[in-house]
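Before we proceed, please read the two lines closing this message. Report back on whether the structure tokens fit the sequence:
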Amino acid sequence: MLLDTAALGRVPREIGLRALGSALMRVSGEPYRPRFERLQRLFDAVNKAGTLIKARTLHCCRIGPVSKRDAIYGSETIRIAREFPRKSRFGSE
């Protein structure tokens, strides 16, 4: 899922937080929202400079910048992708 962080920053904070939380729920497939404190930190990081310089993870999702080719919203485009758990080195448990 691609997201326009400039548009996210133009709406009231409460609506932006709800939209970001909903996007994370949709991508992760989880039936509950991320923890509010962590969601706020991600929202602030996304809106602070307009883009994320470095990828972050939250709610089984990887949130990060996109290549210029995929930047359909310009430099404010970020990608939210499902992050699958790493395989355990001790076998399945």
User: Anything to note?
Assistant: The helical segments are 5-10, 13-28, 36-48. The first strand starts at residue 2 and ends at 4.
